[in-house]
């Protein structure tokens, strides 16, 4: 429907007050729609906010802050507020009868965007430091980078002007040798993130449900929202282990299509016990096991289990082990009964020539990959010991390439993150219902650990 309501120019504070009264969530709305300037344009279509909050699908009685923020953001976007806040200025359409939002799927109007980590060049400009002077420990990237064969292969790459192999055959054969899983079970994606979305697009109808076990990787809930699915939350225990009885109960009560599991789990680094995985696999549900960090643990990959479990998918990535986060290469092991249909639905040229060349080159030097893994595991243990001596942090044991720390009440996780950033050290902080006042620190090189500890010691 076209935007025909009268437009009023009002102070920013009045906009915030009006929206606060509409949904009674001042904290969320202050963060969502208060831009850094004096006045913004608002129409009487603010009433849409009530409709959005009432029509969204929620598990339980109270909508999450994420969805509430999305509702507020949707109204702001409708009136061009996000455009102004992003510095794009006023936008007008020569066809006054049209409003771009009318072409969107309705549930996307209340979708809160995913919040990624800032890239190097943005951090460099914001902090006023050269990229090489930033200790980046906020995104679990591999600080050693890929094997030297990768840069050599990219430098001599042939035929970048030709579309890539839509079946990534060379890479899948190399992966079959590396994992022991037949190439017919393997599907490669533009990062494992693409495969998460592909799985949902192929299995979920609007209104279908998934089980999510937070705190965990937030892409599962995000992609469920994108695909108009509902999220059944089964929170982890205080020690971050899975609530297996809770998962069993959720499957029986809500009849979800998919359960998403991560081992080692991000952000705490805990692993799933084999007996727990077996219990969950006995349920009438598709189990997606994300093993992005499996190489850093003592646990074997369960990728080979797809040969005997028709309801299991195992996801892996080149971002952590092989240092190829910037090239976006992930893969999954699938039961044959499922994978043939995902082949039909995936984008034909989803893995670039450069990505496949780099991944194959990385796999050609398994000794380098093993040495880097061992170096990171050794440094993880050293870092854990050092963090135990920091009086305001409580680190949790990890089987991944990061360590989660509970920040004691004397300090704020956000303040710690900001204090470290001023010294060029970047870490991730959390302030969520299941993860209040925590920081996550990626494992770096020894010299990066030394700089981190020096910066932490300067915090009173």
From TrEMBL:
Pathway it works in: Amino-acid biosynthesis; L-histidine biosynthesis; L-histidine from 5-phospho-alpha-D-ribose 1-diphosphate: step 7/9
Aminotransferase class I/classII large domain sequence ranges: 133-456
GO molecular function annotations of the record: histidinol-phosphate transaminase activity; pyridoxal phosphate binding
Keyword rRNA-binding: no
Cofactor requirement: pyridoxal 5'-phosphate
Keyword Acetylation set for record: no
Entry's EC annotation: 2.6.1.9
One BP annotation, GO: L-histidine biosynthetic process
Keywords: Amino-acid biosynthesis, Aminotransferase, Histidine biosynthesis, Pyridoxal phosphate, Transferase
Record CDD domains: AAT_like
Catalytic activity: L-histidinol phosphate + 2-oxoglutarate = 3-(imidazol-4-yl)-2-oxopropyl phosphate + L-glutamate
Transmembrane segments: none
Classification via PANTHER family: HISTIDINOL-PHOSPHATE AMINOTRANSFERASE, HISTIDINOL-PHOSPHATE AMINOTRANSFERASE-RELATED
NCBIfam families (alphabetical): hisC
HAMAP family: HisC_aminotrans_2
Name by which UniProt lists this protein: histidinol-phosphate transaminase
